[in-house]
Structures are given as C-alpha cells and as structure tokens.
Design brief:
The chain is an all-alpha fold and about 45 residues long. The chain has one domain (about 1-45). The protein contains one helix and no strands. InterPro entries: Haem_export_protD_CcmD. Belongs to the CcmD/CycX/HelD family. Required for the export of heme to the periplasm for the biogenesis of c-type cytochromes.
Amino acid sequence: MDFSAHTTPYVLTAYAVSLFALAVLIVWRVREFKKAKREEERLGERD
C-alpha cells in the first residue's frame, strides 16, 4: 500500500495554506508599519 499517493493532496493543501497565511501576515505587518509611520509623521507635524 502506497500512502504517499494518498497523502500528497493533503500535504500540498497544507503547504499552500501555510504559504498563504505567511503572505497575509507579511502584508498585514507592512500595512501596520506604514500606518504607524504615517501616524508618527502626523504627530511630528503637530509639535
């Protein structure tokens, strides 16, 4: 019995999901960083 042929779709799915989650995390962090930077510039102008 060959288990690798049976589990391949699950492994690929898990891999794809983890890559997608990583990409989402990176995008979210970049957006948060940009927002924080904008906020910092806004506060700096007020001084």
